[in-house]
Amino acid sequence: MAKFVLAGKADCPYYAKAELLADALQLSLPNFKIRKICILPDEWKKWLEATCVLNGWKHDKSPLIWRELLEQGGKGMLIGGFSDFLEHCQEYYSITSDMPTETMLSVSAENLETRVNFIKEQQQHHNSHINALHIWISGALNPTCHILIPNLLSAEVFPHTTAIILHMLEVEGDEEELKGLKMETEDLALPLLHHVTIHTDLELAFLEADVILLLDEWCDGKDAEDECHGERKLNKMKECYKEYGELIDTRAKKDVKVIVAGDSFVNLKCSLLVEKAHLTDSRRFVTMATQLENMARAILAKKLKVRASDVKDVIVWGNISGTFYADLQRAKVFNYNGPIKGPSFFSQSVLKILHDRFVSEANIISAFIDMTVFFPSSYF
């Protein structure tokens, strides 16, 4: 029995030609068997090097063809590329190939499409069995992600989840940087992480999403100096978030949770999403002001001479990149060194401690610059 193995890039026309020649031989010869290995183009080089090292061969092109000397597996005898295989078939089986170039290209394109679809179906089938949580992060190259990802993919955040599939999206971003971030994330070996995918376009964006975090930033200090450039970027951001809203509406799960964070225009971004996501409950969209809240806590902690972590329940209202208010009505402080003290779990109202309202308000407002601190009317 003659058993041959044909391996090649999915889009290689010579692999397609060798494949059809082998099919013809298998139909006409009862003892002629073939096994095909179709490899995606971006995985071919790595696979070829590993196979040649394993078998002690030297070959650098697609396809790679060898004859197995055992019924199943085992070390094989290298035939070579398509020309070598064609010569072998002519010599031993008196058969040749006269496939035209157009047919070669057509078959190779079909091979690639079939292989890609097979991998997608296989992945979808696998994902359906593990019941994983799909988390999408847009603006994945934001420096925040290096801190966010290890904390996000934890049992504390998702206590009832057994597996998480992380999708990292950076529209028109550097694919190599995304691959680097993917590698770093995988190297963390987080227990809940099932696998990571990277995307630089919106072809699959937010598909089956359970949680979406939008960290895209469109404006920086240079934009403030160049009004025209800043306006162009703002318009681009608006169009992008309108498209995001439509994609979330059609691709994400209906109970998706969407969190918008960043340094600029977060309220505008969130309103654009809600406007375009007609079928998704608007309560599923949340805008985060955590950065400003932490800033307020740090300033209050300095004033009260405690740690920032000892100041709790400071609320920020308004537009993060416009007019906003730090609401201290519910704010409380722990471990304050004042006339009234208690155990570590004992807290006091920040407003009661800041008894000298004029001095305190002036100091805090000047520290916040554009931030207004909100005191209840009963306080004055």
Number of strands: 16
* Annotated CATH architecture of the largest domain: 3-Layer(aba) Sandwich
- The helix/strand order is EHEHEEHHEHEHEEHHEHEHEEEEEHHE
Provide the domain count. Answer: 3
> Do you know the CATH topology of the largest domain?
Rossmann fold
- Helix coverage percent of residues? 40-55%
- Give the overall form: elongated
**What count of helical segments does DSSP give?**
12
Task: Please summarize what this structure is.
The chain has 380 residues and is an alpha/beta fold.
List keywords for this structure.
380 residues; Glutaredoxin; Rossmann fold; 3 domains; six-stranded parallel β-sheet; four-stranded mixed β-sheet; 12 helices; disordered C terminus; Lactate_DH/Glyco_Ohase_4_C; NAD(P)-bd_dom_sf; oxidoreductase activity, acting on the CH-OH group of donors, NAD or NADP as acceptor; malate dehydrogenase activity
